Amino acid sequence: MSTPAAGAPAVHRDYQGAKIAMWLFLFTEMILFGGLFILYSAYRAKYPHDFHHGGMELDYVIGVANTAILLTSSLTMVLSISGIQRGNRRLAMIMLAATVLLGTFFLVNKYVEWGAKIAHGIYPNGPELMKRSPGEVLFFGLYFAMTGLHGLHVAAGIVLLSVMFVWLVRKQIRKDDYVKLENSGLYWHLVDVIWIFLLPMFYLAA
Fold it and tell me: If we measure between CA atoms, which residue out of 147, 156, 152, 123 comes closest to residue 199?
């Protein structure tokens, strides 16, 4: 870490505390989604055939494509952090911008997918969905709730990483001070991991 100039006040940076705080936050996120996973499992055990039928109506190609997008974004996030660790700010900025762009592509795909379902009346309390069996109503209710909540986390991550990009431009994130970018990367990886669970639960439910 660089030493402060003569006469300049020392700046205290609690990197370890910042990392612990981020891990505690991520733990609460895991509890939130873990509860939803348990709820899904309970209803799927009760309505296996309805969940099977509901899963067949989802576009697994979009689901797999979005998985590839998020996995690639995790790679670019790692490369961004690796770049700033080596003092290559330009590489860090390019890879972070790629991560934000990939996250945006994910949300665009999700918007298209949701739009198609809503156009056919398949959404919570939608006219077409309410004609279905109770199990299918629950399946699509959980689908919209859980993928919607995940989408909000992706959107929040895009905003967070955009702020990190601005700080990289302003050199507020440097080789000797990159914990903010590192913590943002942890959050983004969690978003990706959650999607890895959502993919088989909904798109491969058949």
Answer: 147
Convert the pLDDT of each residue in 149-197 to its tens digit: 999 999 999 999 999 999 999 999 999 889 999 999 999 999 999 999 9
Q: Tell me the whole-structure pTM to 2 decimals.
A: 0.89
pLDDT score recorded for residue 4 = 46
Burial class from Cβ neighbours inside 10 Å (0-12, 13-18, 19+) for residue 27 reads exposed
Q: What is the DSSP letter of 177?
A: B
Give the HSE-up count for residue 91: Cα atoms under 13 Å, Cβ half-sphere. Answer: 13
Distances (CA, A) of 126 to 138, 184, 186: 13, 37, 37
CATH architecture, range 20-203: Up-down Bundle (1.20)
144 and 124 in contact (C-beta within 8 Å)? yes
Higher pLDDT among residues 146 and 12, named by residue: 146
DSSP 128: T
Residue boundaries of the structural domains of the chain: 20-203
Grouping H, G, I as helix, E, B as strand and the rest as coil, residue 174 is: strand
